[in-house]
Amino acid sequence: MFLRSKNKMKLCHGLIIFVLTSFTYVLADIPCAERQIPKQSVVCVCNTTYCDDITREIPAPKSFVTYTSSKDGLRFKKAGGTWIESKSKSCCSTTLEVFPHIKYQRVEGFGGAVTDSAGINWKALPATLQDYLIRSYFSENGLEYNMLRVPIGGSDFSTHPYAYNELPVNDTQLTNYTLAPEDNLYKIPMIKSIMKAATAPVHIVATTWSPPLWMKTHQTYGGFSRLKRQYYQAYADYHLKFLEKYNQSGIPVWGITTTNEPINGVLSIAPFNSLGWDVQEMGEWIMNNLGPTIRNSAFKDLKILAGDDQRATIPYWFNVMFARYPKALDFVDGIAVHFYTDNFIPAAVFDAVTATHPEKIILATEACQGSFPWQKEKVLLGSWDRAKSYIEDILEDLNYNLVGWIDWNLCLNMRGGPNWVENFVDSPIIVDEEKQQFLKQPMFYAMGHFSKFIPRGSIRIKVVENKHFFVSRVRHVAFITPKNTIVAVLYNDGQSRTIHLKNSGKQATLNLPAHSVTTVEFPCE
Ligand SMILES: *[C@@H]1O[C@H](CO)[C@@H](O)[C@H](O)[C@H]1NC(C)=O
Ligand SMILES: *[C@@H]1O[C@H](CO)[C@@H](O)[C@H](O)[C@H]1NC(C)=O
Ligand SMILES: *[C@@H]1O[C@H](CO)[C@@H](O)[C@H](O)[C@H]1NC(C)=O
Ligand SMILES: *[C@@H]1O[C@H](CO)[C@@H](O)[C@H](O)[C@H]1NC(C)=O
Predict the structure, then answer these.
(1) Ligand 2 contacts CB of residue 175 (under 6 A)
(2) Residue 287 DSSP code
(3) Which residues sit with their C-beta closer than 6 Å to ligand 4?
(4) Which ligand is located closest to the Cα atom of residue 215?
């Protein structure tokens, strides 16, 4: 039992009610060293001698544990209580009832990206802080992330554009394929350190932004370009070589995507590393080159995820491409999707995939705040609104059967870089190299409310909300975990309120502070 509670017994309408008056936790957490940001929420400061952490309590039989973070500054605040016999519905309170026997998708995981920039910022910290940063995200006392995305070669979050085997040109055999200094100095050491700290095998998704220029129709990293026909096989081999190189470095890759945001290179909307594809070219490349190359290699079990672009493009790839090239679909394990149009495109686009191909997975592979031109502050310290945008997006995606959610850069500097085209953005961890500290943004805790408590193998279950028409919704999602517990994540965007959680005739009373996210966990009895 993790909590020693003083229970008072009261007899009330013939029901025995346990009223929890106080409890203490076996596992004490190191609290957030708060810095209040004017007009925003708080950031938690980690320095060479101090960093907050969070341990998961094992919920005792008939009890529940809650963790709450809020705009007012709560960060994983623990509380808990016991289940009581369910009373008849009271007039005004909201109830959320879970149905553990009605099951949906299986979770693959949550994570962030080891870009060159993340690695550079991480490496700029003293060793103890490097360790704190990795532990904050991956360890048992951290968010327990279990996924990573890693660029194959450079992305805009690099100090300069590059790809592997740029020389000699026209080298279809890729005779000079060597990893970059960025791999050896930053990415590989960071990933190794992550693999050591993580509580579960880290599933890495690798993605190419741009191949070497000689493979492209236009000799630029960004802007408009296509893959030259004569290099379709070389580009497939380019991926296989990366798997081999990382394998030789001791890093297993779990999946690849079929090129980052291919529409960027069609519409010429990105000044950074890109490669344009249309459905015909992509369908043929997967079917004739990438698919057979991977499936006939030592890496035949690798996941291949198509798309890797905004929600708006899902019907284009999934419905149009695979309708025309059904054989390409045989090589593909699912589809990857990015975050940036989610305010404009309803998540219902995912239904097309789930309805026709329930065996294919959908994974969110990139998200960040601050990327739009109208967002003047690229890094907005302490922003609760940005945390809220993550929480709402993850809740929505999970309710539409996505199997995981991978954030963009694990950490950035105070400007939101480095980035070779000055496409600066925000990150859940901002590194202040000068002060030898890093700042955990509200977005960091937003991620943790999911990643820490919904381990790989969790299965989403049905939740039904019963509420009076004049109260606002509590956004929610629930899972049954491999630890045989039920975990629900709830977002209350209104004033502070009390709701009831119901499960097979029992109920738990939860207090949800104003503008807060709560994760609740209880044994599945
Ligand atoms: C680190 O942070 C802790 C907690 O805020 C503080 O007490 C300590 O003085 C700081 N140490 C340094 C070296 O800044
Ligand atoms: C191989 O690539 C390196 C850069 O990684 C370059 O300096 C060298 O000239 C290349 N070798 C040939 C034969 O092109
Ligand atoms: C590389 O191939 C292109 C045609 O795709 C050709 O124009 C160019 O001269 C070739 N370069 C070398 C060094 O062979
Ligand atoms: C590298 O590949 C070999 C053969 O496929 C495999 O046995 C080994 O586990 C791989 N190592 C890593 C680190 O993925």
Answers:
(1) no
(2) I
(3) 247, 250-252, 298
(4) 3
- According to the model, what pLDDT value does residue 26 have? 53
| Contact residues of ligand 3, CB 6 A cut-off | 169-170
* Structural domain harbouring 318: 108-451
Number of domains making up the chain: 2
How is residue 121 annotated by DSSP?
Answer: H
Query: What CA–CA distance (Å, rounded) separates 488 from 485?
Result: 10
CATH of the domain at 491: 2.60.40.1180
Query: Which residues have a catalytic role annotated?
Result: 261, 366
- Say if pTM beats, i.e. exceeds, 0.90: yes
Give the pLDDT confidence score for residue 204 in this predicted structure.
Answer: 99
How far is Cα 122 from Cα 347, in angstroms, rounded to an integer?
Answer: 34
Mean pLDDT by 10 residues, the chain (525 residues): 34 36 61 98 98 97 98 98 82 89 98 99 98 98 98 98 98 98 98 98 99 98 98 99 98 98 94 97 98 98 98 93 95 98 95 93 98 96 98 98 99 98 98 98 99 98 90 94 98 96 96 98 94
Nearest-CA residue for ligand 2 atom 7 is 167
- Where does residue 62 fall: left (phi above 0), alpha (psi -120 to 50 degrees), or beta otherwise? left
Alpha-carbon dihedral sign for residues 227, 229, 231, 232:
positive
Q: Would residue 316 count as lying in a domain?
A: yes
Q: What is the DSSP string of 47-67?
A: ETTB-----PPPPPTTEEEEE
- Looking at residue 93, its pLDDT comes to 81
- CA 169 to ligand 3 centroid distance, Å: 7
Pocket test of ligand 2: the residue of 160, 162, 169, 176 to mutate, having most ligand atoms within 8 Å of its CB, is 176
Asked if residue 277 and residue 257 are part of one domain, the reply reads: yes
Position 3 in a domain: no
Which ligand sits nearest to residue 33's alpha carbon? Answer: 1
Between the CA of 43 and the centroid of ligand 1 the distance, in Å, is 14
